[in-house]
Write a structure and sequence with these properties.
Distance between the termini: 13 Å
Shape: globular
Number of strands: 2
Number of helices: 15
Helix content: 55-70%
Strand content: under 5%
Strand order of the largest sheet: 1-2
Structural class: mainly alpha
Length: about 300
């Protein structure tokens, strides 16, 4: 699927990321470990979604640069830690050796820690944003990434391993609203914090982002069943091997596909209810992208 706007924004994000981690005076190679994972590829869907939402809200999308970079740093740190032997124990990510396989476990942990803190540093030092907006963004990102958001969701997910279908659907959705959905929600709502649209628009975009988060996770669960390992850049079947609760394990493949369809329709419905002045074509494309992605 091609979308020139998304391709261009992805290119901009990649260029900004390349210059976001300068060498320090401490004479370590920690920055190399940070950059290794940060520049390891990926679709940059979260930062791009943030910029697209700002653009849709008729705001200069460049005002979202710092939030977009911070968001990608938080996401990257989470992947570094997820791949560690104590958690998912993965050797490859996006077709490349995982960070701990290249730099060792302790340095991978510290690289993740450094990326997390760098995310907030970038936002607070953005001279193009008002101070009250920076406070909103930092509050939102800390909530999305912390024990009530992504980290809390990952904790629930780890605790659920080995329980298989004993975890009910409501609990599973609670896990993924936090683990996967929190950062996708931040992408959309950070744009709302910057653009400050009317309340009804903010509410519809929040609902849209929540449906996107569940769509993304359901598709992940399905790809673990039938995905192409070459395109995924990692092995499939790990959910079954680890006896993880997934939409597929609870609902079956057909049931998971139906759940994906339901959230897809709801995401479209949220955009359809926005005032006509907003061009939602790129946000609709994100829905299609989530539905049809192969990695």
């Amino acid at each position: 699927m091609m979308n020139h706007k998304i391709d261009n924004l992805t290119g901009e994000i990649n260029k900004l990321l390349q210059n976001s981690i300068p060498n320090s005076s401490l004479n370590t190679d920690l920055e190399n470990s940070m950059r290794y994972s940060l520049e390891a590829g990926g679709k940059r869907i979260r930062p791009v979604l943030l910029l697209l939402t700002l653009d849709m809200l008729a705001k200069d999308y460049k005002l979202g640069y710092s939030s977009a970079l911070g968001l990608e740093m938080v996401h990257t740190y989470s992947l570094i830690h997820d791949d560690l032997p104590a958690m998912d124990n993965d050797d490859y990510r996006r077709g490349k050796l995982t960070n701990h396989k290249v730099y060792g476990e302790w340095k991978a942990i510290l690289a993740g820690d450094a990326l997390l803190t760098k995310a907030f540093d970038i936002i607070i030092n953005d001279d193009n944003l008002k101070d009250d907006v920076k406070v909103k963004l930092i509050k939102r990102l800390s909530s999305a990434s912390g024990h009530l958001g992504m980290v809390g969701g990952q904790t629930l997910d780890m605790q659920s391993e080995g329980e298989g279908s004993s975890v009910d659907l409501n609990t599973l959705e609670h896990i993924h609203h936090a683990k996967t959905g929190a950062l996708l929600k931040f992408a959309v709502m950070a744009a709302v914090d910057i653009a400050e649209p009317e309340t009804n628009v903010a509410g519809l975009l929040e609902s849209y982002s929540e449906h996107l988060g569940l769509m993304f996770q359901i598709k992940d669960d399905l790809l673990d069943i039938y995905g192409d390992e070459a395109k995924l850049g990692k092995a499939t079947g790990s959910d079954i091997e680890n006896d993880k609760s997934t939409y597929v394990s609870l609902l079956g493949q057909n049931g998971a596909e139906e759940k994906l369809k339901s959230h897809t329709e709801s995401a479209y419905a949220c955009l359809a209810r926005l005032p006509e002045q907003y061009d939602t074509s790129n946000l609709k494309f994100i829905i299609e992208l989530f539905n049809n992605r192969e990695s």
